[in-house]
């Protein structure tokens, strides 16, 4: 196992909508895997974290 591998991510949150009745915010989450220059969009932080974990395990 190489202890010098790096998996870097940039995570951006963009407000997509706000429910007028509840005030609940809906976010668009863009995750960029820096080493592969791969961008993926998500609607939940749970999905984004799962993606980052998968990418880090592949590194």
From TrEMBL:
Q: What is this protein called?
A: Uncharacterized protein
Source species taxonomy: Bacteria, Bacillati, Bacillota, Bacilli, Bacillales
